[in-house]
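Standup notes
- DV: blocked on the single-chain target, sequence here:
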Amino acid sequence: MRTYFITDKSEIEQIISKCEICFVSMVSTDGMPYVLPMNFGYIDGRIVLHSAPEGTHLQYLALNNRVCIAMNYGVDLRWQHPLVACSYRTEAVSVVCNGIVSFVENENDKIKYLNALCAHYSNNQFEFSIPAVRNVKIWLVEIDKMTCKAVGQKVK
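- DV (later): unblocked, structure below
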């Protein structure tokens, strides 16, 4: 099975736009990996996430704000022969990012990033109440490193 590494930024951004969920990994207080599936947005080369304003994940990020984010789409199972286990393979496209989380506190900026997150899932224009904006934690992930690959298929 062939793996293609994708390095063109616009192609990677197109792939990101097709992904529905990302998995955000961080380090827990006891050093164990901790992973959350999350909705996300992508704007200006950054990943936008949102969560409750409190929780275990925020305690972990307070100690270490470095994260690894993985997302994928197009997972298809293929085989050469249905009764030969080693002939099975999965075809998919994935993006993995390493970055640093900061939190957005300004209400107008929160609305901007909430709109970016919503735009990933819908073409609707949304309005946000100030109490809702104040009660959400907006994560902004500055990406240090991003890799992208297509396994078993060529994407273009």
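- Follow-up: The two ends are 18 Å apart (CA to CA).
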